[in-house]
Design a protein that fits this description.
Helix content: 40-55%
Distance between the termini: 25 Å
Structural class: mainly alpha
Strand order of the largest sheet: 1-2
Shape: globular
Strand content: under 5%
Order of helices and strands: HEHHEHH
Number of helices: 5
Largest sheet: 2 strands, antiparallel
Radius of gyration: 14 Å
Amino acid sequence: RLEKQLDLLRQSNVNMVGCRFRIIDALGQAVTSLQRYEQWSNALTEPARIVAMRFVELPIVNPTLMAKREVFELGYREGAWPEDYDLCLRALG
């Protein structure tokens, strides 16, 4: 997964990439209460759709995020909002 994400960052004009995921509990069982979010996020496979959905919810799930250095150099900002979401919104422009 990491190799594929790195290749995509190097070979395209995207600044951030993520991947599909499955939410599981400590016993390895799927968390059904989050299944709707999981399905929504996993359906976001095209850059334009990810950008379009950025105000609905964080479109790239943090544990799957890989980004170019320039994204992280934007830095976190203090505020009354989630810092990771703010950074993602600014990176997606």
